[in-house]
Amino acid sequence: MSHFTRPHQLPQQQAPEIESLPPDGPAEDLPAGPTDATAVPTAGPADGPTAGLPPGDDLTDAPTDAPADEQPHAPADAEAHPPAPDAPDAPSTGWRDRHPVAARAAAWTTTVLAGALVLVTLLLPNDAQRLTAAEFVRIPVEGIAGAALLLLLPPTARRVAAVLGGVALGVLTALDLLDIGFNEVLGRGFNVVFDWVLLGDGASFLQDSIGRAGTIGVEIAAALLVVALLVLPALALVRLSNLMARHAARAAGTTLVLGTAWVLASALGLQIAGAPLASRSTSDLVQARMDGVSATLKDERAFAKEAASDPYHHTPGNRLLTGLRGKDVIFTFIESYGRSAVQDRLMAPGVDAVLAKGTEQLRKAGYASRSGWLTSATYGGSSWLGHSTFLSGLWIDNQQRYRTVTAGDHLTLTGAFKRTGAWRTVGIMPGVTKGWPEATYYGLDHVYDSRELGYKGPKFSWSTMPDQYSLAAFERLEHGRPHDKPLMSEIILTSSHNPWAPLPKPLPWNKVGDGSVYRSIEKAGKNPVDVWQQTDQVRTEYGKSIQYSLKSLISYVEKYGNKNTVLVFLGDHQPVAKVSGDHASRDVPVAIVAHDPDVLKRISDWHWAPGLNPGHQAPVWRMDSFRDRFLTAFGSHPGPGSPR
After folding, report:
1. Is the same domain home to 19 and 134?
2. Looking at CB atoms within 10 Å, which of 281, 347, 394, 560 has the fewest?
């Protein structure tokens, strides 16, 4: 109960002036209490000290401008009820009230950052070369349409739409970043249907390059980035939508002005630094992704029919490869061995010198060689796509095609050798670290993976063992042992695999042993992180890695080859853009080396260049055309009922 007597009981001269209460003060300045329906009105002759306030509230804390002698007298029992010593003070105001300038600045800053974030997500290109300031000063039509929609929606629907729109922007931004990464490494954008599996391969490559701890750090950072991309744009759109709702008229006018500006800029074709001022990049990217998914699904069906149609599918073994009977045939892939290795101004001098010297070494040993160019189905990575394209005669440029062909029975080059029954077929696969069911599809009697080659030395970054050791193991396990049949071998050389540091060095063949000798070489090698800090250094080390692989292979043939040796070696793809350069071709060198002159006579109509270096004038074929050309040149004939 109040300690004041009601107004009608006070002497008239003790009534305070009404101005003693602030007329327009904030609600927080008035003491809270229950509302009394019988309270005396705040104007008129009955005005008193509690006028306009609920009965029972104490005015001693209320602000007043009245003179001291006009203040209401304290109740008689005021001294009898002093405030408790531990009674709490009046509720303190928030930090915005204590620091209004800072609060206002923080609010404006947050709003500006929210707007900038939404603008960046709408205008972010999916190509690193377009990451320029001009790209982000354009007018996005999607932003205008989104603002108009948010202004029309009721509050609840508006908040839901803002959250969903923000999440969608975050997902699109993540896909744009994946596009940038894939374009830099593989020369193509990210396919949302079948490229997710490659992220795991990327993590494995990182672990081999920077170690487990560094890889975990990168994975944590990537996970945090994904969460931020899903949350921050949504929060930003919610904040902006609330701001527009509070200032609906001004927001509608701004949206109308921007919409008009976009229409005019689009009609007039206005540009900023070559980029159209009127942007619809997000809509175009969404449409492109939808078209890509549709095209991928159609391609899967079309490719399945193509793979099922093979002119050599029913060819009996006795009509295959009759021109190579009795020969030891070796197909060797050199990792990342591309046109840039033999024609780039920085890398070519060293590689060309190795090829020239190797041609002469092999000539002295009784071998002749011819070389040309093949256009790979892949670039910068995904070596298995290049391998399967070369061996199957089908254009396999994505993971779905690879799965389709390896799940079928389309004849491969290696499978053709097995079908004849005239060769033992083996694979030397140092890059395979676990079970490889594709061995059956490729027609290999036995595959020696990294676990079966007997290597006791250190890894060289991604490469599990040096190329020279892989070749020495091949000689020890297969080629150097007596067989009742000649060998057909598929050998993958991995020392030239990204990141090209540290690198092994050539050794005398009798010093290779079990690989333990490489420990000191690996420790003395360069750190991949240090190498990748400078583009020229990366390219230099890449060139050295190709030189090492070529020297190892040429030296092997020179030492262990014989009159029945036929070697076909090629690159699987070009190195990444940081090495090969922007817009590089997908061409890789290919060469055939043979001791028997009749082998090269059979390919005389190919018009390949003499020696191991194709030069600039050698013909360029698509890689998927090689299988049929090779089978035809060496005595194979399409089977019964073939359209050929």
Report:
1. no
2. 560
